[in-house]
Amino acid sequence: MQCQECGKRPATLHYTKIINGEKMEFHLCEVCAKEKGEQMAGMEAGFSIHNLLSGLLNLDGQFAEGQPARSASSSEGLRCKTCGLTYSQFSKIGRFGCSDCYKAFAERLDPLFRRVHGHTTHRGKVPERTGGKLRIRREIERLKQELSARIQKEEFEEAARLRDRIRELQAKLDS
Amino acid sequence: MSLQRFTQDALSEWMRGKGPRSDIVISSRVRLARNLSGLPFPMLATSSQSSDIVRRVEEALRSDNRPAALDKAELIRMDDLSDLEKRVLVEKHLISPHLAEESRHGAVVLSPNEAVSIMINEEDHIRIQCLFPGLQPQEAWKLADELDDWFERRLTYAFSETTGYLTSCPTNVGTGIRASVMVHLPALAMTQQINRLFPAITQVGLAVRGIYGEGSEALGNLYQVSNQVTLGQREEDIIEKLTGVVRQMIQHEHSARSRLREISLTKLEDRVHRSYGILSHARVLSSKEAMERLSDVRLGIDMGLISGVSANVMNELMVLTQPGFLQTRAKQRLDAEERDIRRAGMIREYLSMKREGQ
Ligand SMILES: [Zn+2]
Ligand SMILES: [Zn+2]
After folding, report:
1. Which residue from B170, B166, B240, B178 is spatially nearest to A117, judged by alpha carbons?
2. How many Å lie between the centroid of ligand 2 and the Cα of residue A103?
3. Is A2 helix (H, G, I), strand (E, B) or coil?
4. Which of B266, B9, B173, B255 has the alpha carbon at shortest distance from A121?
5. Do B205 and A59 count as a contact with CB atoms less than 8 A apart?
6. What is the pLDDT of residues B121-170, one digit of tens each?
7. Per the UniProt record, which residue ranges are transmembrane (chain A) (predicted)?
């Protein structure tokens, strides 16, 4: 299969993306993929982020520990107060500067996540030590689903047991 | 220096054992991307913040009751390695080119058998990688999950209830998992069926790429299949889907092999033995030709057409004939022409050695 961009080199990258709700297929050679700035699964170093960034940002020393970055000027749009990255810089380099960027750019991220992943909410693993309450909430959700299934099947004894368990967990959550 | 252990042998110890479906599946890998809370991602971290991250991981590793998989694991700093040593680790897929070339205060924690490699200050603060021979993504996930839990008891991760594990690149966010399986598909390539198979794989949200090509080719008919989606799906479901798709690929490759045997056995035998002959006698071999011939011979071994050489030898030669390894062996820098001569020499020597002894 030839690369759909250049039509010359063999396509070695094959993937789909959801664009405006439609599934699009891509078959690209490595060169064209790089040019398009595609960040592929398993493709570790796409392009030199550090070089690109140093041109884009002049952050030297700005992220010195404990020192707040320059405050956002409204004309520049969204900016992460913690690391100083702006949304437009983020969209150019495709990388967040720090974990607070997720909060700073939150209003713009759902469409991006939907495009890349087809989803916007995490459903996987929760950290054991620090994810305590979330773990409990997940468990409650799961039990509630099971509860309504039992009720539908008229298995009321089991349903009552589940309801008690949910109450227990709810109390734990509220304490 | 114990680093030698990691740069001398082409085959990691974990690869010497035979994994399930190893006639087609070379290896399974699971990588988890994690970041420490309260520190900028490596791209924006200052030098002191980056070295602090290495120190914190080192400290965690010094604590008691390390998991068995990390017993006697070593932390190796990129700054302590020569370019060639780094290159060899890249060729063995133990570290990424990005960690080798572009990281600041980059480091890797390697277990003695090389089944675990934990990259520090790559694109994310921590990338836990577990590698298993053959088709074992589930086992690789279980181990990565366990190591992740162990680290999380000692380090606080950047995690959001809605978005999951926060990563430098939005393509990794959520689970931070990248599960991949490396497969050898010569019969599907020979019968031109591979082009029809790939679109079907991408349909279900997985990505396929050729590996080992300098540039754009899938040399040696080796491909890597991996998950694309990291957000909104559970790790177990991701692993299950990947495993299911790879199983189907294996089936297709098997039936392509049987068809080849039925309709053109003589041609196939001629092809694999011809390649075996060239590998055994050639004086100059480009890496492209070497990979193609090694793939043929590997197919011949797996189909019982060639005997007296183990499939492991082929795996090993695929790594040993990479530029970094050749230069490490030669203990000097080599230009492309020199490398082609040394490559042929190394393959000849290796095959005659393996035929006589062991
Ligand atoms: Zn192209
Ligand atoms: Zn930020």
Report:
1. B170
2. 8
3. strand
4. B173
5. no
6. 999 999 999 999 999 999 999 999 999 999 999 999 999 999 999 999 99
7. none
Measuring CA to CA, which residue among B180, B248, B252 is closest to residue B209? B180
CA of A6 to the centre of ligand 1 (A): 4
Confidence at residue A136, expressed as pLDDT on a 0 to 100 scale: 86
Q: In terms of Cα–Cα distance, which of B96, B115, B219, B114 is closest to B169?
A: B96
Search chain A and give the residue with CA nearest B174. A122
- CA B331, distance to chain mean position in Å, is 24
- Percentages of chain A per state (helix, strand, coil), in multiples of 5: 45, 10, 45
| Interface contact A39-B216, CB threshold 8 A | no
Distance B218 CA to ligand 1 centre (A): 14
Both tokens of residue A163?
A: 């309801």
Three-state secondary structure call for residue B207: strand
CB proximity A19 to B under 8 Å: no
State how far residue B179 is from chain A, nearest Cα, in angstroms: 9
Each residue's pLDDT tens digit, A10-26: 777 777 776 666 777 77
Report the distance separating Cα B266 and Cα B237, nearest Å.
43
* pLDDT beyond 70 at A76: no
Report how far ligand 1's centroid is from the alpha carbon of A13 (Å).
10
Token couple for B172: 């990794």
Contact call for B43 and A49, based on CB within 8 A: yes
Cβ partners under 8 Å of residue B227, min gap 6: A41, B177, B178, B179, B180, B205, B206, B207, B238, B241, B242
The CB density around residue A134, as the number of other CB atoms within 10 Å, is: 16
A1: which chain B residues are within 8 Å (Cβ-Cβ)? 195, 198
**What does the pLDDT read at residue B314?**
80
Smallest Cβ distance to A50: which of B40, B102, B145?
Answer: B102
Question: Do the beta carbons of residue B129 and residue B89 sit within 8 Å?
Answer: no
pLDDT at residue A48 is higher than 60: no
Alpha-carbon distance B13 to B21, whole Å? 18
What does the block give as tokens for A127? Answer: 């950290």
Query: In the CATH hierarchy, which fold is given to the domain comprising B3-179?
Result: Creatine Kinase; Chain A, domain 2 (3.30.590)
Greatest mean pLDDT among A87-101, B26-40, B188-202 = B26-40
Residues of chain B with CATH 3.30.590.10: 3-179
| Global confidence as pTM | 0.81
pLDDT for A21 equals 65
Among B52-56, B193-197, B218-222, top mean pLDDT goes to: B52-56
- The count of residues in chain A is 175
Cβ < 5 A residues, ion ligand 1: A 3, 5-6, 9, 29, 32
pLDDT at position A73 is 42
Contact B41 A116 (CB under 8 A): no
